[in-house]
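Researcher: Quick one. six chains, 416 residues in total.
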Amino acid sequence: MVDVAGAPHESKRTTTQKSADVGGIAAGQLRAFVERIERLEEEKKALAGDIKEVYAEAKGNGFDTKILRKVISIRKMEEAERQEQESLLDLYLAALGMVPQAAE
Amino acid sequence: MVDVAGAPHESKRTTTQKSADVGGIAAGQLRAFVERIERLEEEKKALAGDIKEVYAEAKGNGFDTKILRKVISIRKMEEAERQEQESLLDLYLAALGMVPQAAE
Amino acid sequence: MVDVAGAPHESKRTTTQKSADVGGIAAGQLRAFVERIERLEEEKKALAGDIKEVYAEAKGNGFDTKILRKVISIRKMEEAERQEQESLLDLYLAALGMVPQAAE
Amino acid sequence: MVDVAGAPHESKRTTTQKSADVGGIAAGQLRAFVERIERLEEEKKALAGDIKEVYAEAKGNGFDTKILRKVISIRKMEEAERQEQESLLDLYLAALGMVPQAAE
DNA sequence: TAAGCATTGTCACCCC
DNA sequence: GGGGTGACAATGCTTA
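Model:
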């Protein structure tokens, strides 16, 4: 790749500096941050793909992925206490004359 | 010339025509469709804004919007039968040794 | 027994108040909010249906709906980019050697 | 409905089996899928944390994280637009008098 | 009918 | 801490 704009040698500036500034921005440093982030996001995206594959494999084994996702989410919720909110929900439902859900 | 991809079928005309064709596309007709859609989407967006406002107003009256949203969604679900899926979910949870949710 | 159902004649209560409380929740007010929201969502859904119809009509006139949707989305993006404050952003982009958004 | 809801196809076994079925669900297999997914999601979450740290570090170096995020997103969009098939799309845009995407 | 896509709602993070 | 904003997941539609 060919030394795109913002490269070190476009230093028409008066003050000396380590990383060339472009319009007052440390280009090299900025570029480094951008690349680190993009690299990490790429890995994250790859993992998302892996997860998708697992769901596909589960589906291939006869499982219903929609339900499977729900199971995962329920397990996630159960790690935390969600009781407080639940009771509030029941209050609202009661106020509307709805039964507080025999089962979701 | 054979009915170029996506071009309106009637556009076999060569020179004179009501709505000028650009590259085989009936520009006027296309523009009309685009405008109708954009107009409708605008209205839809406005309604979304209205809904947001109602939630804000509810919040201003001391209601918990998150719970309120859940109430709405439950009422939506109750219109339909959701029993089949629920029982499947219970099966999965049972297979994992989890209790089928006293209440969600 | 405490007047659950939140029905209109739930005024069997001791303390005088405008909207009857159920479990500390102002049932009447809650119901009003729920209804307003559901009404608006209904209208929104109707509009979504209208939009769908326009796409269908366009398709009937030989247009490729998939491309048509893309056109709409591009126009939406371009409009969004038009109203952006880009001072600092432009600096960063310049530092990375990217053109500061070829304006439409 | 054939092939009862989400049950693995091979589960026509009656009594003896490797992985115990609970209510017609292959518990062991289900559990394995759930664990794989949860493991991957954990890794993904860790990466999200890493990304957050990089932003924090950038901020510590004087960069505006909000703008930085926008830069990342713009680069993402531009890359996406780079790999698009635009034949018909260009026709439609041209018909509307829009420039067919000034390439980056 | 299943897969891909587009939209919509949810959630978490950031700023005020 | 509360509101606003942006990313992510999930659902529904559309098409092949």
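Residues 48, 66, 69, 73 of chain B lie near DNA strand E (CB under 10 Å from a C1').
Researcher: Thanks, that's what I needed.
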